[in-house]
Amino acid sequence: MKAIVIGATGTIGKGIVEELESKGYEVISGHRNSLVSIDIDNPESVHNFFESTEMVDAIICAAGSAAFAPVSELDEEKIQSSLNSKFAGQLRVAKYGLKNLKENGAIILTGGMFAYAPWPSTSMLAAVNKGLEGFALGATLEMEDGRRVMVAHPPLLSESAEKMGMPTDPWPNSSVVAKSYSKALESGKSADVFYVDGYEPK
Fold first, then answer.
1. Is there a domain that residue 173 lies in?
2. How many domains does the chain contain in total?
């Protein structure tokens, strides 16, 4: 089994790579400094990456950024960069990656908990994450030969909480979060949206 992990050097991405390799996957890491680089903010970069990549069983994207700011500070630059990166960037991965996906393969995009449990200053993140969910729901209706498009909505990671100076106890680490991705792949089901066990919406 082969999988592409885009954003493989990030906190979630590293955990996913380790998890999939422990399951016997051959992992192709994609990031801005990989052998064949990919920048999901750049349509040409995404297109060229998949033109240079073989057929795989799974494509996972854990890349992209969106603004963390109150509505009053969401200027046009923050709005457009958020849409171009975390939202449109991941849609590009699904669009261009589809031709590299084997029958019964899966594409997983990464949203986050702010889609269903926003905090103050997360309106842009909430909008993008919900948009990814809508994309997966619609794209699933078009898939053929058992292919799937799903969105993961992980909670805040303990590693991220630590960097933010927040308590880490309530949050899972990247290893725990990564297991939800492999579980979704192994299920064979088109869940459209999935969560980390114990962190589902209430």
1. yes
2. 1
pLDDT at 191: 63
Q: Over the chain, what HEC string results?
A: CEEEEECCCCHHHHHHHHHHHHCCCEEEEECCCCCCCCCCCCHHHHHHHHHCCCCEEEEEECCCCCCCCCHHHCCHHHHHHHHHHHHHHHHHHHHHHHHHEEEEEEEEEECCHHHCCCCCCCHHHHHHHHHHHHHHHHHHCCCCCCCEEEEECCCCCHHHHHHCCCCCCCCCCHHHHHHHHHHHHHHCCCCCEECCCCCCCC
Give the chain's length. 202
Name the pLDDT band for 124 (thresholds 50, 70, 90). very high
Its pTM surpasses 0.85: yes
Please report, for the domain that includes residue 102, its CATH number: 3.40.50.720
Residue 51 lies in domain: 2-194
Residues 161-172: pLDDT tens digits?
Answer: 999 999 999 999
Residue 202 has pLDDT above 90, yes or no: no
pLDDT of residue 36: 83
Count how many Cα atoms sit within 13 Å of the Cα of residue 94 in the half-sphere of its side chain: 27
